[in-house]
Amino acid sequence: MKSRIGAVLTAGVLTVSVSGCGVFRGDEDSSAPGVTKDACPNAVNKNNGCIYLGAISDLTVGPFKTLAVPITEAQKAFWKRVNQQGGIGGYDIDVTKYVRDNKYNPETHNQVYQEIKGKVLALAQTLGSPTTAAIIKDLKSSKIVAAPASWTSAWNFEDVILESGASYCIESMNAIDYAVETFKPKSVMAVHYAGDYGADAAAGAKAGAAAQKLTFNAIETPQGQDNQGRAVDAIVKGKPDLVILTTGPTDAATVIGQAAARGYKGRYIGTSPSWNKGLLKSPAAPAIKAQYLQSAPWAPFQTQTPGHQAMRQALGQVDPNDGYTSGWVWSYPLKAALQKAAANKELTRDGLLKAVKQITQVDYEGMMPTGSGNFAGDAGTGAVRTSLIAKPDDKEQTGVKVIKEAFTGPTAKAYTLDAPCFGKL
Amino acid sequence: MTEFWQSVARGLGNGSIYALLALGFVIIYKSTRVVSFAQPAFMLAGAVLVTYLAAEVNFFLALVLSALAVALLALGVERVTVRPMVGKPVFVVAIITLGLDIVIRVIVNGFIGLDVRQVGDPWGLQTVNLLGVPVQQRYLAMLLTTALMVAALFAFFRYTRFGLAMRAAAFDQETALAQGVPVGAVFATSWAMAGGLAAVAGVLVGSGASVDQNLWIIALKALPAIILGGLDSLGGAVAGGLAVGLVESLVGTYQADLAPWLGQNFAVVSPYVLMLLVLLMKPYGLFGTPEVERV
After folding, report:
1. Residue B173 belongs to what domain range?
2. Total domains, chain B
3. Is B218 close to A282, i.e. CB distance below 8 A?
C-alpha cells in the first residue's frame, strides 16, 4: 500500500514539474516570456514561432471606449499586416490572445496586467495615463516595453514606454504659437481636466503664454456635462481671446455651446481627444464651426500618406475615426524595436529594451515627420515637437481638415524638457 | 445680477434632472426597501433610444416612446432578476442592481458607436429673455417637464386605486398583501416608473448637448438628493434634487471669488457637504420618516 501511494505521489510530482516547465503545454520558452516556437493561434505563417503582445484598453464601460475600441482594432490590423509581410525574425505577432479591459480604472488595469504579464513579451497597448502610471514601476522592474495610448509628457522620461507624437504639453505650446501667428490673442485661458491629460496641456499652454507674453489663467473642470457651469461662467466672465480646451468631446461641446449662448465670441483650440465628428451634429455645431480648432499630434484618418493608405486598406470598411489612426501610429515604434531585437538575435525582454535604446528613428511610413521616434537619446532630444492644426469640416471623413501641417513653434523648439510638464502648472 | 439668475436657472434645470432620478430611487426604495443602482443604466438607455427614435419620429413622441420602452425594460429586469430575491437581504439585492447597471450599460454602449449622438431636441442652445435675464430654453424645458411629471405622479399616488395600493404596500407589505394588494405588481410597477423617470431624465440631459457613454455618471448626483430629502419621501426627492442643483450651480459660480481657498472644484463636493449639514440636524433627511425600533 505504502509503495502504491509513493508511486502515485512520485507520478504526481513528476507531472506537475514537467508540465510546469512547459513541456506538455509547449506554449512558451522559459527564457523569454511571450515568445514560443509554436505558431500563433490562427497564424498567417504556420511555420513561424509566435510573439505574444498584450493590450490593456478601455473596451466596455470606461470613458474612452469610443477611442479605445478603434485603437485596439487598428492594432490588430497593423500586426496582421506585419504577419502578412512575413512576420519578424521568424515569428508572427499575436495581439488577440491577451487583450484585456481596464474599464479605465487603475486598479483594474494593474489587475489584468498582472494576469497577462507572464505570458507576453511586451504590451502593444496600455491605454490611459493614470492607468499606465499604476503599472509603470512593474513595467520598469520587469523590463516590459509598452506602447502607450496617451500623450502625457511623462512618457518622454520612461525607457520602457514607446511613445509617438507630441505630448499634450508640446501640442498646447504649438497651439498658442499658431494662435499668436494667426489671430494674435492677448489673453489665454486653459480649461482642463485634472491629472496628466488636462494638466499636461494646461502646463504647455502656460509655458506658451509666458513665452509669447500673454496673460494666462487655468480653470480645472471636472468631467460631466452638468459640471461645466463653472468653466462656462469663467469664460464668459473672463472673456479670454483664446481658450485651450483639454476635455472630452461632450464636455468640450457643452463648454463651447453654452459660452456661445451667453455671448462669448473668442477662439478655442482643443487637444486631439476633445474632438469627435458627432459634435458637428450637436446643438453646439454652429459655435464649434465658428470658434473651435483642433490641435493634433498627427494627420487624420483620411490623409494620403503611405501609412494612412496602408491603414485604411488593412481595416477595410470602417466608420472613419482617428482612434484607428492613433492605434496604427502607436504600433510603429514597437515594430521597429522587435525588428531590432530580432536582428540582434535577442528576442527577450532584456533584448527588446536594449533594442529600444538603439532606435534613433522610426519609419512611420509618412504618418509622422522624418526623424520622429528617437529613443536613443534623453527626453529632451527624443521628444517629438511637431503637431498640426485642423478645423471642423463637414465634408471630411473625421469631420476635421488640416489647415496647418506639422510644425514646431518657437516655444516648443526652445523648451527645455527636464521634467514632465504637468508638474509645472 | 444677471449672472446670479442665470446660475439659478442652470441650478434649477440640472436640479430637475436630479429630482426625476431621485424620484425613481425613492419609488423603488419605498416599495422594496432596496436602493436600486440600476438607475444610471436606465437613464443612459432612455437617452440612447431617443437618439435613434428622433430620426424617425417627432422628438416629443420619441421621448414618450423611449420612456415607455425603458419602463418595460425595467419591469422585465425586476421580474427576471430581482423578484426571485424577495425575502433575501436587501444588501444582496442592491449588489445585484449594481451588476445589472453594468450589464445594461455595456449593452447600451454598443448602440452608441464611435461618435457622440444627438437627441434631436427642438430648443438646442436657444435662450429666452425672462424679465431681462437671458435663460436657456433647455433649463426651462427641464423644469417644466419635471413639474408636469411630479404633478402626474402625485396625482397617481393620491387619486388612483393602484396608487393607494402602492402606498399601502410601502407602509406595510404583509398587511397590504392580506388586504388583497398585489404586492408583486407593486414591485414591478415601481421599477417601471423608476425606469421611465430615468429615461426622461437622460433625454433631458442630452438636450442642448450630446449623448455619450459617460452620461450615466450624472445619475449619481441623485444619491445626495435622496439622502438629504429623506430616503422614503417623494416630496423630499424633489426638494433634494432641486436643492442639490441650486447649491452646486451657485457654489460653482461664486466659490472661486468668495472662497478660493476651497480649491477649484468645490462645487462637485458641495451636494455632499449640504447633505452632511442637513443630516446633522435631521438624521432622516428633510422629509424622511424617523424609524422607531423597539428593543
Report:
1. 2-220
2. 1
3. no
Which residue is closest to B3 within chain A, CA to CA? A233
Asked if B250 is an interface residue toward chain A (Cβ–Cβ < 8 A), one would say no
Are A225 and B218 in contact (CB < 8 Å)?
yes
Decide if B282 is inside a domain. Answer: no
User: What 3-state class would DSSP assign to A124?
Assistant: strand
pLDDT digits (tens, 9 = 90+) for B237-274: 999 999 999 999 999 999 988 998 998 889 999 999 99
Closest by Cα among B40, B5, B35, B4 to B21 = B40
pLDDT of amino acid A63: 82
Q: What homologous superfamily does CATH list for A35-150+302-367?
A: Response regulator (3.40.50.2300)
Q: Please check whether residue B145 lies inside any domain of the structure.
A: yes
Instruction: Please tell me the CATH superfamily of domain A168-298+387-424, with its number.
Output: Response regulator (3.40.50.2300)
User: Quick one: cell of B259?
Assistant: 472662497
Residue B200 lies in a domain: yes
Across the range B155-166, mean pLDDT stands at 94
Q: How far apart are CA A368 and CA A293, in angstroms?
A: 20
| Residue B244 within any structural domain of the chain | no
The residues facing A85 across adjacent strands are none
Q: Describe the crossing of helices B266-281 and B222-229 by its angle, rounded to 10 degrees.
A: 20
Give the CA distances from residue A142 to residues A129, A145, A350, B214, in Å, rounded to whole numbers and listed in that order.
19, 9, 9, 34
Report ipTM for this prediction: 0.86
- Beta-carbon separation of A279 and B221 below 8 A: no
